[in-house]
Amino acid sequence: MSEQTAAGGTGRAAEHTALEEQFDQWRGYVQRRRAISAADVDEMEDHLRGQVNDLTASGLDDDEAFLVAVKRMGNLDEVSREFAREHSERLWKQLVLVPEEPGEGGRWRELGVVLALAITAGIWVKILLDTAGDNELVLVRNGVFAVLPFLAGYFVWKRRVPWRIAATLLAITAALALVVNLYPFESGPFDEPGMTMFLAISHTPVVLWLLLGVVYSGGAWRSSARRMDFVRFTGELLIYLVLIMLGGGLLIGLTFGSLDLVGVDFEPFLGDWLLPFAIPGALLVGAWLVEAKKNVVENIAPVLTRVFTPLTIVMLLAIFVALVVNGPLTSVDRDLLILMDAILVLVLFLLLYSISARDPLAPPGVFDWMQLVLLGAALAVDAVALVAMLTRIAEFGFTANKVAALGLNLVLLVHLVWAAWLATGFVRGQRSFGAIERWQTQYLPVYAAWAAIVVVAFGPIFGFV
User: Fold this and answer.
1) Are 162 and 219 in contact, with CB atoms under 8 Å apart?
2) Is 303 helix (H, G, I), strand (E, B) or coil?
3) Under DSSP, is residue 61 helix (H, G, I), strand (E, B) or coil?
4) For the whole model, what pTM was predicted?
């Protein structure tokens, strides 16, 4: 009797786990599709849960109750209607007839806000450019502070982020700006950034970008679904930026060539006016496109991950063989180790983005095994890189660069090892895909914490050299 009860309890737990995953999926969809505050999403979810509870109490199972509840929500709410339409193939195609959505009135208003922020960011970059003059370090130190806050402002407006959260993030950003500008960093003999200054400048965007994730999630950063939405947003934004840069570069090249043929020097206008406004403009318009035209990129993203995953595996295996075959690890060049770190970060991003683009309810397939191979190859390369770094540190001693690279490798190692463990359990049918998603998103703050340590602490620790 007790065994039957336990078995029944386990079965019900599995059913409710699937239901919770559907709630997470619905919540993430609602949050990232429209200008809805976190409080409104909570209220909508409470209403949806109440509908599901009533329906399950009347005899429907979890899946049926969820389908009918979303359908009922869809009659009242545009977002749920859109969600039901896009997920009809998997969940309720035969149960729900979804009406066409009405026209959307606020799209032009949102575009106006985006363009206003983009122009303001461009003005700020132009002021910074004129203030810096020939001192390029001023521009390098402050460029990210001149652009990202305006992108954050867009999401503060769109997500209706509570003012306490927005003020806290603004204070953290201001503190980082003071650290980067007021620390007595030493410069090189040719006025290039010193070691700790370079580390602070290169790690600040990482901290700011993850702070942007808090704004993007509407302040609900603890939600795994919202963190995954931010990962998805980051990948889609990169795709849009590449497309915008390719198109913009082509137009600038054609304009430059045409004006040059008629004796007009386009270069001063390009450097003094066009680029200062074009760079923040591309970032903000790209973010708006992700929000407004997400379906376009969503169809491309899974294809891109399937194309680049096998290619990345081949690249990692080639690097691993080259490192093992070509001499002792003490002879590995420092620049090569830095490049390997960059490659591993790229691999990690590819992994995150492919996970974000995957249907969490689909069973394990060939591509999941391929991702497991990708994780194994990345772990092998990371292990070799770690051995090479420790060997170099033992021979030449500690420096800020070596400690920063070693720390990043250790952070990556923990991330990859546990991701591989979870992925192995998933392809063997021992755990759900949700465990992999949660691990990826729960670990993101570790990167922000490490980057913040490098920015704030490495200068004083290593004497600002």
Assistant:
1) yes
2) helix
3) coil
4) 0.72
